[in-house]
Design brief:
- By secondary structure, the protein is mainly α.
- It contains five helices and no strands.
- It has one domain: lambda repressor-like DNA-binding domains (434 Repressor (Amino-terminal Domain)), CATH 1.10.260.40.
- Helix content is 75%, strand content 0%.
- The chain starts with a helix and ends with a helix.
Length: 80
Protein backbone atom coordinates (compact mmCIF):
# COMPACT_ATOMS: atom_id res chain seq x y z
CA UNK A 1 0.00 0.00 0.00
CA UNK A 2 2.87 2.38 0.75
CA UNK A 3 4.12 2.03 -2.81
CA UNK A 4 0.70 3.05 -4.06
CA UNK A 5 0.57 6.11 -1.79
CA UNK A 6 3.86 7.47 -3.09
CA UNK A 7 2.92 6.72 -6.67
CA UNK A 8 -0.44 8.45 -6.28
CA UNK A 9 1.18 11.50 -4.66
CA UNK A 10 3.47 11.85 -7.64
CA UNK A 11 0.56 11.46 -10.06
CA UNK A 12 -1.42 14.14 -8.22
CA UNK A 13 1.53 16.54 -8.29
CA UNK A 14 2.12 16.00 -12.01
CA UNK A 15 -1.60 16.33 -12.84
CA UNK A 16 -1.55 19.66 -11.05
CA UNK A 17 1.43 20.74 -13.21
CA UNK A 18 3.52 21.34 -10.13
CA UNK A 19 7.28 21.05 -9.99
CA UNK A 20 8.71 19.17 -7.05
CA UNK A 21 10.95 22.09 -6.05
CA UNK A 22 8.00 24.50 -5.87
CA UNK A 23 5.88 22.12 -3.76
CA UNK A 24 8.81 21.49 -1.43
CA UNK A 25 9.48 25.21 -1.09
CA UNK A 26 5.80 26.05 -0.47
CA UNK A 27 5.55 23.39 2.25
CA UNK A 28 8.96 24.18 3.73
CA UNK A 29 10.23 20.68 2.88
CA UNK A 30 13.52 19.53 1.52
CA UNK A 31 13.08 18.66 -2.16
CA UNK A 32 14.82 15.32 -1.62
CA UNK A 33 12.41 14.47 1.22
CA UNK A 34 9.42 15.04 -1.05
CA UNK A 35 11.09 12.94 -3.74
CA UNK A 36 11.59 10.14 -1.19
CA UNK A 37 7.91 10.30 -0.24
CA UNK A 38 6.93 9.90 -3.87
CA UNK A 39 9.38 7.03 -4.36
CA UNK A 40 8.51 5.34 -1.06
CA UNK A 41 12.06 5.60 0.21
CA UNK A 42 11.03 7.50 3.32
CA UNK A 43 8.22 7.12 5.82
CA UNK A 44 5.33 9.51 5.43
CA UNK A 45 3.34 10.51 8.49
CA UNK A 46 -0.42 10.81 8.37
CA UNK A 47 -0.07 14.49 9.21
CA UNK A 48 2.34 15.10 6.31
CA UNK A 49 0.10 13.15 3.93
CA UNK A 50 -2.86 15.27 4.98
CA UNK A 51 -0.80 18.43 4.49
CA UNK A 52 0.13 17.32 0.96
CA UNK A 53 -3.46 16.41 0.07
CA UNK A 54 -4.69 19.77 1.35
CA UNK A 55 -1.98 21.55 -0.63
CA UNK A 56 -2.97 19.69 -3.81
CA UNK A 57 -6.66 20.21 -2.99
CA UNK A 58 -7.35 16.49 -3.27
CA UNK A 59 -10.24 14.81 -1.49
CA UNK A 60 -8.92 12.05 0.81
CA UNK A 61 -11.67 9.67 -0.25
CA UNK A 62 -10.80 10.01 -3.91
CA UNK A 63 -7.08 9.69 -3.17
CA UNK A 64 -7.54 6.41 -1.29
CA UNK A 65 -10.07 5.11 -3.80
CA UNK A 66 -7.41 5.56 -6.49
CA UNK A 67 -4.93 3.68 -4.32
CA UNK A 68 -7.39 0.83 -3.80
CA UNK A 69 -8.05 0.68 -7.55
CA UNK A 70 -4.31 0.58 -8.23
CA UNK A 71 -3.80 -2.21 -5.69
CA UNK A 72 -6.75 -4.18 -7.05
CA UNK A 73 -5.39 -3.91 -10.60
CA UNK A 74 -1.93 -4.91 -9.39
CA UNK A 75 -3.25 -8.03 -7.63
CA UNK A 76 -5.35 -8.99 -10.63
CA UNK A 77 -2.32 -8.67 -12.93
CA UNK A 78 -0.25 -10.89 -10.62
CA UNK A 79 -2.94 -13.57 -10.65
CA UNK A 80 -3.11 -13.72 -14.45
Amino acid sequence: MLEAIGKELKIVRIRNNMKINIVANDLNLNQETLRRYENNASGLSVERLEELLNYYKVDKHIFFKNICDYMHDSIRTQEE
